[in-house]
Queue: 2 jobs
Job 1
Amino acid sequence: MRRRHLLLFAAGLLLAASCNSPKTTTGKTLSFPKVDSLLKVMTLEEKIGQMVLLTSDWSVTGPSIREGYLEDIRRGRCGNIFNAYTADYTRKMQEIAVNETRLGIPLLFGYDVIHGFRTIFPVNLGISCSWDIDAVRESAVIAAREAAAAGLHWTYSPMCDISVEPRWGRISEGAGEDPYLGSLIAAAMTEGYQGKDLSDPLTLLACVKHYAAYGAPQAGRDYNTVDMSERWLREFYLPPYKAAIDAGALSVMASFNELDGVPATANKHLMQDILRDEWGFQGFVVTDYTGINEMVCHGYAEDEADAGRLAVNAGIDMDMQSASFLNYLKEQVESGEVSMKTVDDAVRRILNVKAALGLFDDPYRYCSPEREKELTLTEENLRFARKLSAESMVLLKNDGVLPLKTEGKIAVIGALADSADDLLGSWRGAGEVQHIPRTILGAIREKVGEKNVIYARGCDELSDDRSGFAGAIAAAILAKQVVMVIGEDCQWTGEAASRTSIKVPGVQTELLRRIAALGKPVTVVLMNGRPLDLSEESELAGAILEAWYPGTMGGYAVADVLFGDVNPSGRLSVTFPRNLGQVPLYHYAKNTGRPYVHPEAKYESRYLDSPNTPLYPFGYGLSYTSFDYSPVALSADSFTGDSGITAAVTVTNKGPREGTETVQMYIRDLVGSVTRPVRQLKGFERITLAPGEARTVEFYIDAETLSFYRQDMTWGAEPGGFNVWIGPDSSTGNVAGFSYR
Ligand code: BGC
């Protein structure tokens, strides 16, 4: 007893002294000397406990393999908990860790705060289509504020997985196909979550996931094998992870997949060579959910003990939910299979982050019922959510039926039109249906008056029940305009939600065909989380608005865009193919030795039964106004060494109303020591122009803009000729040529 008190006193002194340690979110100077001192008094079991992360019994996303986690906390066997929130609940658990364990080291509470916590924003693929980096950052600021007030310290976000795979359900969680846009978004989200000082109780620790290349599973099946060249990995897949690390993210989650035959969970090349040695990452690496055990199924480890040993020796610091560290690590250290230094390094990284979060100063700093009340679902948060939701929507087609007229009856058709649940999408944090003020139907009714709206369910998203067709057709006959809300059930995207078809499911398109045959103006609103094959819908509908899963305020936001209160400005962050056979289809493709240029040619790189081009290219999106682009003006037609040139266009709003245009710059390196994409996004700027207003947008091009992994894998630019396009998407725009010498 006496000994316990002495130890508690010693630990207390150490923890109190840590208050004065430097705080950082940059990862560059992360060092808390007192954490080293604490390490000196910890037993091996206590150290291992800090390396264990267990789920509480809320919101689990996988097998719950351990009962009695409270007892594990009490016995110092578990230093980190996820899937538990609210100020009260986290405080109760924190009290066990602080008051009942020998050293009183506070718990770290994690959760999947992916696109909002209580106020839910559109799914991340939707957010990325705003191309509004400040808004992306602000969404993370709000999410962090709401979540941190509920006792959380750590979010498993940003998800930095580039993906060109629409079959993969998790494409909805990322920022699309492009490494440049994806990197800006990854950095902005990290900055938004972590703020300037991690110990600020309004911020969260970010977790960069899923490291690495989880977005490239073969055949789009979740968790499937990933294999790609080191060059492709570095050029197209790694940049967003690195951007988040450079922005100061202090935790990384290893992905489920294997890469080049080695599961990411035991991949030394990823965790040591690249992440720590090259990028200088100083935070900790956590596995994904039971990632360690899964290496047995991968055929990489003999059993769970072996898997844990491989993981920790490769650079994993924290075991999410496999209990392999808990059960076997002590023995492995004692037998010398895992060195004490490996354990100490892992624990130091974890405790440093806990110190940076300010948990040693005040373990309860994040649990504040008052703040929880005051900062959650505020009017300001909801207003912002409505704006971001509208900004994320992409107008894919409009033959003039939008904006909708407010006079005359409107038929609203489709189960999704009145589904509050689907508005939230997958990974909805602590978002609840009861906080949604209006569904899409509700918002349209509010806009034009109940009596002017005829609602018919028609059919739901998945079944082949056609019994509602007659009612829907009758509603359309009575109306002047038709809005059909179709798409995917929100559980059809996200984790473990891969598809072998990317068509609109069920009989929704069949109903659209019947409705379109009536000859009324038909607008399709899409709710979905992946690029869909819209080849038929794009023929049938007069207008198509891609609304994604638009979040808590999504009903209002859809109505804002449909009726023209908001002029749509979203641009696709991912290519929409014409059919699944074209997949993968992305804008930074190479030319091949036989590019398809002659319409009748046989021996050129083409399909016999489909064009090569997408239905809607990356960067594409319409507005209720139109923009005109001048030719590209270069400040010089060549540059050398450290200098650079500018490429400029003047963009004019030719239409009748104010609008926001995303001006995009793409570059091609004509000859390289390795082949280069035909076009690659290298810059963009969002501008808002009044009717008739013109603005010159200028991009700076220097050697860094032209750099890539050359044949010898060094990063740099090569002299030669280049093309630069500036335009409204990846398939059009004016072009100019220049050289770098
Ligand atoms: C997912 C992660 C998530 C984790 C914790 C896993 O199944 O792959 O993205 O952060 O669960 O909920």
Job 2
Amino acid sequence: MSAANIPGDTQKPIQAAVIGWPIKHSRSPLIHNTWLNQLGIAARYEKYAVDPADVTDFLRSMPERGLLGCNVTIPHKTIAYETADNCHPDAVAVGAANTIWFEGNKMCATNTDIYGFITHLDASAPQWRKADRPVTLLGAGGAARAIVYGFLQSGVTEIRIVNRTRAAADELTNIFGPKIRAVDWHEMQSALTDCGVLVNTTSLGMEGGPALEIDLSPMPDGSTVNDIVYVPLETPLLAAARARGLVAVDGLGMLLHQAVPSFERWFHVRPQVTPMLRDSVIADLKAHP
Ligand code: ATR
């Protein structure tokens, strides 16, 4: 387990953290330390690389370490959910937790990815709700599961899951019921017809990785394309959406907004996602890709 460099004030005690494996590229310390500094809170947010074998011990030891709580990222979200004593319904629905805090000696967990995704979509493309059309997701992993639940909570009545491995899409149908329709990967184009929002939850399009091959022409005019990949910020998918005149929503907003309820849990103040915060994360992504 190792503590990495952070942008916080080293004179302040570490009271919150993010754990993952690896964790080097996490921007959560930048986000939370910016808020701690702005709000004048005498605390610091650290990042820890925690080996999968050590996650439970780390989580249980947080009070002794002086930590009020932590964020949890890949690949520890499922074990964090399983380790917690009390889970918020959002964590239960997704089977994964990204935020941990303590109430007395009880470890509590929730999943703020759902809130982060929907809040950013609402802020960036508010018209998506009025369209009242089916939603299409590419991918059926952990991120897709949170996003499916967010759309169901928002009243979406048809969600098409297009996944390379059909069984994973079928699994989401089993979990979430008849509003979910599994679609084979090679039928991707047909899933775009009448679709109001398309979300890429796969890693395709990520810098240095394989591209996402898709033709957006079947999507209706005025529809929205959201990529949860944020390195690069403007993915080829988002560029293609803009070229087609569709509304393009980037993946960085989800990261920024999911941090808000976590911070509020620990420090009892609701921080703001501002253009300045967003710009500083973008600058950091450019400086340290
Ligand atoms: P996350 O928690 O970010 O969702 P994950 O649970 O590992 O990560 O899920 C990754 C998703 O990206 C999966 O839907 C995966 O498809 P499979 O179920 O077929 O593995 C999808 N994915 C990853 N690489 C892919 C590729 N080269 N082509 C198509 N889909 C891919």
